[in-house]
Amino acid sequence: MTSSLLSPAAVPASAPVTASCTPAGWGTFTSNQLPELIEFFGKKIGVQAANEPIWKTFLKANNLDASKITKVPVQFDPTPLAQKQVDGWLSYVTNEPNLL
Q: Which residues of 46-58 are buried (b: 16+ CB within 10 A; e: fewer)?
């Protein structure tokens, strides 16, 4: 399920929701969406240390091989996503998307 986030026209973004019981989701630019799980392979995903348990659970629940995805340690400031240093961003959909 993908839902569009409100953002300035210069920074269009979307976030597929990972589960209904958590506000965690994936932030990407609309020009580089990851709508299918296999599309995570070969991508750089920004993951905060505090969200490591969510990351590991996501990988396990979806039977994804972590060695095929580059996890990039980041803080909560989504600047690396805005500067396209990463392809995707694990975040709470109520937090980082609002900073973009």
A: bbbeebeebbeeb
